[in-house]
Amino acid sequence: MRTYVVCVLLFVILGLVGDVECRRGRTRARAKSKFQIGLPITGKYRDPESDQYYNNNNGAKITLASHFDYEYVLGHKIAFVCMARGKPRPHITWYKDGSEIFTHLYLNIHEWTIGDDRIKSKLEIDPATQMDAGVYECTADNMYSIDRRSFKTDFSIVFD
After folding, report:
1. Average of pLDDT values for 13-23?
2. In angstroms, rounded to a whole number, what is the distance separating the alpha carbons of residues 146 and 17?
3. Residue 33: partners with Cβ closer than 8 Å, 6 or more residues away
4. What is the mean pLDDT of residues 2-10?
């Protein structure tokens, strides 16, 4: 009787092992980022009027932007550049972690107009602190379209 029970238990255990699926790494799904990284907004639309409106040649387009991933040194300057074109000339707005940012004592935003359809904007932070790490975004918009680019920043510490 005892041998019979042991054989049944082994059979059950071996049978269960065959049905078990093993996973490596994370067992839970990764949480989605609170901030979506800005990529150019493009696409095809069902009706021609929408396609013509959203893909208008006069729409705001970012033509030059800083590098996506930027590691800065604490106490040094951070600078991002964003250049856009469009008719009418686009307006550039800067965001950090999803909130609009404005000039203050340690953060300056400079803008230059170039011709009648281009604008260049530069965001400078001097000196950079740990609080300046995050996701920055420049958005260019006019009456026809919106374009955006994002820049992810993190700090490094340099020991002399």
Report:
1. 43
2. 55
3. none
4. 50
